[in-house]
Amino acid sequence: MGETHVPVLIRNPAEPERTWEGHFLVDTSASDCFVPRPYLEGIGLAPKGERVYELADGSEVTVDVTTGDLEFMGEIIGGLIAFGAAGTEPLLGVIALQAAGVEVDLRTESLRKGRRFRL
Hints:
Layout: E1 5-11, E2 19-26, E3 33-36, H1 37-42, E4 49-54, E5 60-72, E6 75-84, E7 91-92, H2 94-99, E8 102-105, E9 110-113
Parallel strand pairs: 2-7, 3-6
Antiparallel strand pairs: 1-2, 1-5, 4-5, 5-6, 8-9
């Protein structure tokens, strides 16, 4: 997939008026979302734990994680967010895409709302 970006609003669930919005790279090889630490801390989100991730080169890295509300393409979901270094590009991973019912069309390199959710 080429580079597809989508605007995403991150909201602090404990203080909903505190938000940050950025253009996230849709990364179908990433499981979780990845946001530079200064933006998360700027809206009052603090680490709640750590998670080990495998990078594209096969190496492992341990990073802080938190939870927050993510709003994109007309959907609001709660999701796990990994803290990235300042200056890194925000990533939108597949877990958030699936939770929001968004499908990735690899042929057109675009996103579209999927079918209705099942209970």
